[in-house]
Amino acid sequence: MIVVCDKLLTKGEGCMSNDNYWEDEDDNQDLGYQGEDDGIKNLRKAKRANEKYIKELEAQLGTYIAKDYERTVNEVLKSKGVNTKAARLILNDLDEVNEETVNNWLLTNGDLIGFQPKEEQQTNNDADIQALKKQDNATHAASAPSFSDDIELKLANATTEEEVLSILNGL
């Protein structure tokens, strides 16, 4: 209950009720205000609707991510020549799927699905090996170009007969 006083109060005086009071409950009813309970109910209803919408969007996102992961795994398996049915096994093992993680999984667990990583095949056949041996024998006995160039330079710069003889004796 609110009491309103019409007169000026001095120190020590109190205000007496002259039937000039209003009750809070009457104010809300007379003016037609919407009660607090309805406002909170509407907020809660809106919150539930938003939460439902967020769950739907998260479900859609999860579906798109799963399809993207499956597509990535299938592409890598096809490029490696592996049966794409193995994708289910790979998808169960990996938390994050990209080309690198799928390749690593194949290297470590590929034997489970019959995958053997292709080792670098030696392209050297017998004819190539023979040609390399001949080339090695021919170059092994030859002197390095820098050594012969160095001797030529020393001989060209020699000014006396003694210098030429010392260069030739040094060989």
Structure, explained:
This protein is mostly helical and 171 residues long. It contains seven helices and two strands; from the N terminus they run E-E-H-H-H-H-H-H-H. The protein has a two-stranded antiparallel sheet. Helix 2 (36-80) crosses helix 3. The protein is elongated. The chain starts with a strand and ends with a helix. The model is unreliable at 23-32 (pLDDT under 50).
Task: Characterize this entry briefly.
This protein is mostly helical. Helix content is 64%, strand content 2%.
Runs in which pLDDT lies below 50 for 5 or more consecutive residues are 23-32
Sheet-strand content, in percent, reads under 5%
How many β strands by DSSP? Answer: 2
Work out the helix count: 7
Characteristics of this structure?
7 helices; two-stranded antiparallel ribbon; mainly alpha; 64% helix; 171 residues
Helices and strands, with pairings:
Layout (H helix, E strand, L loop, with lengths): L1 E2 L17 E2 L1 H8 L4 H45 L6 H7 L5 H11 L16 H16 L3 H13 L3 H9 L2
Antiparallel strand pairs: 1-2
Helix pairs in contact: 2-3
